[in-house]
Amino acid sequence: MGIYDKIFKPKKLVLSDGKVVEEKRTRTPLVLLLLLIATIISVRITGFSLNTILTRGNQFFVILGQMFPPKTGYLSSIWGPLLDTIKMSLLGSFIGGVLAIPFAILASSNLVKNKVVLGVVRIFLSIVRTIPTLVAALIATYIWGLGTMAGTVAIAVFTFAYVGKQLYELIETVDMGAYEAMEAMGAGRAQAFLAAIQPQVLPAYLSVCLFCFEGNVRYAVILGYVGAGGLGLILNEKIGWREYDSVGMILVVLFGTVLLIEALSHYIRKKLT
What we know:
The chain is an all-alpha fold. The protein is 74% helix and 3% strand. The protein has twelve helices and two strands; from the N terminus they run αββααααααααααα. The two termini are 48 Å apart.
């Protein structure tokens, strides 16, 4: 019996047959108390001030108002960086998605029985997944310099870690009957994988990759703040110069691009399933 149950004794219930059972007290008050304590600690550590939000929060809407109507004359300067953003998002998503496949296979416990290999590959994926995309982009800019190359590498690293984890979890849920039957008939492990497991995980794998691509278009804009190219560079520049009407035009174009990509991804996923 846990400490909570010792403090708050379980409620005894008598069934119709005379048997006595115990119903444990709900943990909701304890969870709420812990959340309250965590919130108070977070407020003190971060210096959060509700008064500041109430007194200065209207400035957000002032800046937002300066963005509209957007400066349509700036539209011609957006297409180039927008294309760079899409290119590095697409290429980074493709590279990361492809590189994730062999690592996901090695991290699948139903395919690889060596616990050392499983542990090393899973730890590696976890380490890569903990690297923030901005940090990866910043490191890449030191290696390859400013530009879309650094952004592409950062997106590839993020996609690799995310897709790798999702894929090996998908592989571990498949029906292994066909795979084992092909091995029993003399097929190689690679051949059995392609014929028995690949068709089961392919639609979900492509769906995850498309989901990553959708998000990477938005992340690519943020990467521009560390010199990784794309829309982020001109967005950072215009915010610095307080040219909010140009910022509004950039955001409108980005919003329309994201909607278009999401609609296309939804259509492709629907066809796959």
